[in-house]
Amino acid sequence: MLFAALIAACAIAPEAAKATELEQTVCRNGTREAVCSVKLDDNSLELKLEPDLMLQARRLGRWRMSHQDGITTRSCNARIDLGSEVVYGVLRISSSTGTSLIWPQQKLEIPDLHFSSTHSMPRESHLDTPSAQPGHP
User: Fold this and answer.
1) Most CB atoms closer than 10 Å: which of 40, 84, 105, 127?
2) Which distant-in-sequence residues (6+ apart) come within 8 Å of 32 by Cβ?
3) Are 113 and 100 in contact (CB under 8 A)?
4) Angle at CA 134, nearest 5°, toward 39 and 35?
């Protein structure tokens, strides 16, 4: 279950903001690292470890923003579909530590998926990744 929890996928609403995608990045659960693909937009996070292994996280409620010591963090409550069960937790995107998906039994980290603290956030995610990707902010 811990390794299977390294995967997250979410339905993307047609009216949602532009998505940020990472075809190959590192995802970790505290004890293991794996290569995964990630798609994040304003309403959801999709993470695939293998073609048949994925998780879905959907934003519940509003995004909360915090600014401290030059670090911007955006977080929200999330409904997380693990495939065999649904849990509730928190999706957190930081300008320094990347993205994490946290629920009572697990924490997944995607260190390469950062929030840009230099942009305001009306509806777009404005996420920074280590390598620029065409068509993404």
Assistant:
1) 40
2) 2, 3, 6
3) no
4) 40
Q: Count other Cβ atoms within 10 Å, centred on residue 7.
A: 24
50 against 92, higher pLDDT: 92
pTM over 0.85: no
Sign of the torsion formed by the C-alpha atoms of 13, 11, 43 and 51: negative
Q: Which two tokens stand for residue 4?
A: 């299977």
Buried b / exposed e along 98-132 (16+ C-beta atoms within 10 A)? bbbbbbeebbbbbbbbbbebeeeeeebbbbbbeee
| Cβ proximity of 19 and 27 under 8 Å | no
Residue 115: both structure tokens together: 């929030």
